[in-house]
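A note from the maintainers: we've had questions about how concatenated examples are separated. There is no special marker in the raw files; a new sequence line simply starts the next protein. For clarity in this README we add a label.
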Amino acid sequence: MKFLSQSANTMACASGSSTVWSLSDGYVDLPAQLLRCPNDKICTQKVSPQREESLVRLSVNCLLLDRSGSDRVLIDCGAGGSWDPSMGHLEEAMCEAGIDTSSITMVALTHAHGDHINGLLTPDGRRTFRNLSKIVIGEDAVEDFLAEPRLKDFRPLLAPIRGGDRPDDHLLAVAIPGHAPGHMGYLRSTGEDDILFCGDLIHVPGAQFARPELTWAYDADESMARASRIKLLQDAAGAHTWLAGAHLGRPGIGRIIKEGHGYAFISAV
C-alpha cells in the first residue's frame, strides 16, 4: 500500500488499481471501564495516556474504496446526527477529500450500530448520498437496521449477505461474529495487498492489540468477540493483511506484527 495524501480529516493510499480513503466522521469519548478482562471484571489498565484515565477516545472512521473515480464503495457511514456533536462529520470529510457524495452508489455496512448506519442521513436530515442504490448488510443485522425509525425509507435498498458472499466482483464478505448481530468485514484483494475492512473488531487499539483477550462492554457476545479477534489478528499478522477499522486511531489503516503475547499496530502513516 502506497501513501498518497493526508489532510486533517482524510487519508488516501493506493494499492493496485484501487485507492483506499479513510474519512473521519469524528470521535466519541466513552468510559474506559467499558473495557473488560476475560473474567468479566472491569479492566483497570490505563488505556490512553493522553486522555483522562476515566475516558477513552474512539475514532469514528468511514472507509471508502475507489476503483476508478466513478466506482466507489463506502464502508460504514458514521453517526449522522444521532449521537454526540463530535460525530456526524462524514460529509465535511468527503468535501475536504474532493469526493462528491453523489458518487456513492453502494454502502457496505459492517453492522447496524448507530455510529455505522445513521450517516445515511446528514445531521440536518438530508439523504447524504442522493444516488445510493444498494446497502449491503449482514442478514442477521437487518432486524437492528429496521429498528431505527429514521432509516425506514432505506429498506428497499437493503441487500442482505452472509459471510463468503461477494457484494460485488471486488469484495468478499467475511463474518466476524461476536460484536453485533451480522457483524461483517469486507476483504479487498488488489493483486498487491489484501485489505480487510474489519468494522468493530477493535475498539481500544491502545489496549486490545497488545491484549486481544480484552473485550468491550458493548459486544453482544464478549466470548465470541474475543475468539473472533484473536483468530483474525493471528491470521492478519501471518498473511500481512492490512486492517482498516472503524475505531482504530486516525487514520485507521495499518498492519500488525506479533509482539510478545500480543501485537503491535503499524499505521499506514
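[label: protein 2]
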Amino acid sequence: MLDTAQKGGQASAWDVVTELGEADGSVAHPHLSLLISPAAASRDLSDAVHALCAVHGDPPGLAVEARTFCVQPDACDWLTAVADAFVGERSYIARLAAAAGPTPSTPGQAETEAALIASRHALETLARSERRGCATGAVAALVNDWTTIRLLLDHAAERFGVEPVPAGFPSLAETASSVTMLGATLATERAVRFGAQQLLAQHRALWDLLEARASARNG
C-alpha cells in the first residue's frame, strides 16, 4: 500500500523539517535577525526573552507533552532525550528573564499576554495530537528552530551578564535518524510536515508580535 511503502529516492521527513525551517523558520524572520545583531536594543532583547519564557519556559513543555501522549512508541526514547534537554533550556531562559529585568512597558500588554497564552495552548494541542507523526514533526521543528533561537538566548546572556550554558540536545545525526525513521511512510511524513508547519507558524507569529511591540515602543 502507498501509505506503508518506503519513499525511495524522495526527501526524508527530516529533510522536510529542515527545508521548512529554512523557508519559514526563525532564521528567515527579519526581527530575529535584528535581535541577534549588535544593534539590538536591550529592551527588545528583554521583551524577546520574556516572550520565550512565556511560551517555552514553563513545564512540562512541548517535548514532555509529546512523550507523555507518545502515539508513536518508537519516538519515546528520542522525545525523552529532547525533553531532558529542555529542562536545561527552561532553566537558562528563567535565568535570562531574571537578569533582563521586568518586561518592558509596551502598549497592548494585555493583548500580548493573551496571544502568548494562546500560542502555548496551540503547542499543547500539537503535542497531544492523536495523529501519528504530528507531535513528532512539531518537536523536530522545535529542535531545528531552536538552533537559531539559541543564538538569541546566548546574545541576551552576553548582554545581561549571564554565563551561557551548552545545550544538551541529542546529536543532529541522532535527531535526523529518528525523525527520518518516524516519518518513513507517506502518512506519517504528511503528519510530520503538518506538525512542523504548525510549530513554525507559532514561532513566526511570536516574532511578528515582538516586532510590532518593538515598533510601538520605539515609534
